[in-house]
Amino acid sequence: MSADSRHWVASAKRWVVKVGSALLTDDGRGIDEAVIAALVEQLAELRQRGCEVLLVSSGAVAAGLSRLGASERPEELHELQAAAAVGQSALLRRYEEAFASKGLMVAQILLGHDDVFARDRYLNARAALKTLLSHGVVPVINENDTVVTDEIRFGDNDTLAALVANLVDADVLVLLTDQDGLFDADPRKEVGASLIQHARADDPRLDTVAGEGGVLGRGGMVTKLRAARLAARSGTETVIVGGRHPQVLIHLAEGEALGTWLESGSAPENARRQWLASLVTFRGTVVIDDGAVAVLKSSGRSLLPVGVKSVSGDFERGDVLLCRDLQGREVARGLSNYSGKEVRKIMGLSSKNIAETLGYGGEAELIHRDNLVLL
Ligand SMILES: Nc1ncnc2c1ncn2[C@@H]1O[C@H](COP(=O)(O)OP(=O)(O)O)[C@@H](O)[C@H]1O
Ligand SMILES: N[C@@H](CCC(=O)OP(=O)(O)O)C(=O)O
After folding, report:
1. Integer CA distances (angstroms), 67 to 27, 59, 86, in order
2. Where in the chain is the domain with CATH 2.30.130.10?
3. Could you identify the atom of ligand 2 that is nearest to the CA of residue 21?
4. The complex's ipTM?
5. Ligand 1 pocket by Cβ (under 6 Å)
6. Taking a C-beta distance cutoff of 8 angstroms, is the pair 362, 338 a contact?
7. Based on C-alpha coordinates, what's the Rg of the chain?
8. Which CATH number fits domain 7-268: 3.40.1160.10, 3.90.1300.10, 3.30.930.10, 3.30.1360.120?
9. pTM given for the model
10. Fewer beta carbons under 10 A from the terminal one: N or C of the chain?
């Protein structure tokens, strides 16, 4: 990737687009219909061009407060949570109508900490999101504000959007905000601040330029920078850009150098491998036959239950499994789609017999290739 070229965006297939409260709620004056209309039109255009899009939208609290007639943001958590409940449904209705006018269906996804950090729920969230994309549905995602507790809230949707990008292995994460991108100082405070067009997400010099957010937004550039670093874990490139710029997403898709590109610095497969390899503690072991070893190694395929000869350990769905060959050599490691109890019942079976054996259906793979790393 060359330093000044944005041509890679033109080949980005899976986009996570995040729109912040500052932009969406017109600085707190309720939901800005014009912003929603413009955003939806561009997302629909991206879909037309063959891209998959996931929208992470803030704005529930701000929209709810305005609907409830609050003149300022209350301090109490229960007031904010009530406002989020009122605002989220209003927000979704707007999106639903706007996307329907473009012939697209939306799905509301409200995520919490455990949905991305507890590995069984991580697998569920990942599978559900990918299934929605395969049906051509646009997921509209927000934090589950109404029930989340302070200790575990993401708080800002920049972090949530990056975690979603990790979940679906997005090619690009676009953080739409009220400024043109990341500047060398906060432009609200420094009139002469200049835009940083391109930097590596892990460049430590960025820490000193990224400042806090405005009144409504929660994280400012601090959380956007952190989000870019998180996104880089799945090899996702991040662009921070002004959401009011006409047709901004389309210009980006055409390779224009708008906003700030924070480069991930690693190929997606390597990033994902590193992440999986960092999950050092495994909870169970399966011994797999020579045929299974061969398909894992030579064609990078998933591990199916049919290739499993024996299993040990007490593990749950989402735990890390170590795979050994018949000679006891370590072959691979990955996230199990089934618990130890279940694997004991389905090992050696063809995937089409899983449902009748367990009494309920599940994935055909014991470890999906996306969640597997060869050793
Ligand atoms: N170096 C910087 N470059 C650009 N904006 C900055 C910088 N440091 C702090 N900011 C602030 O970050 C704000 C955007 O973040 P935030 O208010 O959280 O919005 P959003 O709701 O879009 O996430 C800007 O309005 C700006 O005041
Ligand atoms: N989940 C919250 C959004 C949190 C928030 O303000 O995020 P952001 O505007 O992206 O900094 C809401 O919908 O109101």
Report:
1. 14, 12, 8
2. 279-374
3. 9
4. 0.96
5. 20-23, 58, 177-179, 182-183, 185-188, 209-214, 217-221
6. yes
7. 22
8. 3.40.1160.10
9. 0.84
10. C
